[in-house]
UniProtKB/TrEMBL annotation:
It comes from the Bacteria. Signal peptide: none annotated. This is Thiamine biosynthesis protein ThiS. PANTHER family: SULFUR CARRIER PROTEIN THIS (PTHR34472). It comes from Acetobacter pomorum. CDD domains: Ubl_ThiS.
Length: 65
């Protein structure tokens, strides 16, 4: 299925947000996620389904001051 991650189109086989994170190599990283403009907590990524054309944002926290 085709999804857009951080404004870049991807062809993926993942069916859930958690599976997408693994497929794209983000597993183990401290990240925040949003699906179609809505924040998705880490605890619910396994049960968050993806659909064709989904817009996903994956961001890592920044350090600094």
């Amino acid at each position: 299925m085709k999804v857009v991650v951080n404004d870049t189109a991807h062809e993926v086989s993942a069916k859930t947000l958690a599976a997408l994170i693994d497929e794209l190599g983000y597993s183990g990283a401290r990240i925040a996620t949003a699906l179609n403009g809505r924040f998705v907590p880490k605890a619910t990524r396994d049960e968050t389904p993806l659909e064709e054309g989904a817009q996903i944002e994956i961001v890592a926290p920044m350090q600094g001051g």
